Structure formats: structure tokens, C-alpha cells
Amino acid sequence: MFCQLSSDLTKKTQALTNILSRRYNISQLLISFSIIFFFIFLHSQGSVGVLNVQAMHYSEKQWGDPKVFRPERFLDENRKIIRAQDILPFGQGKRLCLGEQLARASLFMYFSSMLQKYSIKLDPNAETKPTMTPIPGFTLSPTEYSVLIKKRVT
């Protein structure tokens, strides 16, 4: 049974899932039809606009220190969640993924349940360690690494 989280812990977990969505996005590029509409006036009709999501999510101009893992950047001074307009794992504008709310809620529930029920640690005997460098392809994949998962005693 899923137990209720405190309000402060809930907000911290939401901030954590925000930074995970920004730092570990699956797709590097996003074909934006709103950009296509914009390009019709600048270029020939049928031009395709591609947004480099990876560049946006790691922009020093936007994030200051984009490689620093700092979930609290998504909390204001009153510890309320800041809606980050510059995180685009679900697209943007009128072509925004219809399932965004469901996906965010599912991610939050799955992530918080895992942290409640299990202790997750890096395997000290593993040959490889996790890196921030993804394996490139049509989608970005993490490098292989080992973790130890132990059920928490309740």
C-alpha cells in the first residue's frame, strides 16, 4: 500500500523528477510543427523545423550551471514547485503530448514508490560505473551499470 508523503517531501520529489526529465531526456531532437508553421513565412512551404532539446536542456544561458545536479532550482523561496517552461520532454505549444499529465503522475508515483520500498545503491564490485554520457542513437540510452536493490524493512 502506498503511504501518503508529506507535502514538503512531495514537492522535493516533484523537483527531483523535473531535473531528471531535463538532464536525462530520451530524445535529442524534437520535430516541432509550430516551428514548421513559423518557417513557412521565412522559408519555402514544407520546410521542417527541428528543435535541439539537448542543447536547450544544457544551455548555460538558461540554467547557469546545467551539469550541476540541483533539484531545488525547481522550488521557489516558499518551497513551491516552479513550472519550468524550458523542459521539453513532452514537446511544446499546441502539439504538446496529450499524455503529459498522466506520464508525469505515473513517473512521480513509480519513482516515489521505488524510493519508499527499496534501498538502491551502486554495486561497489561492478566493473563499470554510471556516466553522464549517453549512448547516442535515435534515442539516448544510458551506459550499462550495476546497482544493488534491497527491500526496505517496514
Characterise the protein shown here.
The chain is globular, with a radius of gyration of 18 Å. Strands 1-2 form a two-stranded antiparallel ribbon. The protein starts with 6 loop residues before the first helix and ends with a strand. Helices cover 35% and strands 10% of the residues. It has one domain. The chain is α+β, with helices and mostly antiparallel strands and 154 residues long.
Helix fraction, binned, reads: 25-40%
Number of helices: 5
The global form is: globular
Strand content: 5-15%
- Major beta sheet, specifics? 2 strands, antiparallel
- The helix/strand class is alpha+beta
CA radius of gyration is 18 Å
Defining traits:
single chain; 154 residues; alpha+beta; two-stranded antiparallel ribbon; 5 helices; 35% helix; 10% strand
Compact description:
The chain contains five helices and four strands; from the N terminus they run αβαβαααββ.
SSE order and pairing:
Blueprint: H1 7-23, E1 29-31, H2 33-42, E2 50-52, H3 53-57, H4 60-63, H5 100-117, E3 118-122, E4 147-151
Antiparallel strand pairs: 1-2, 3-4
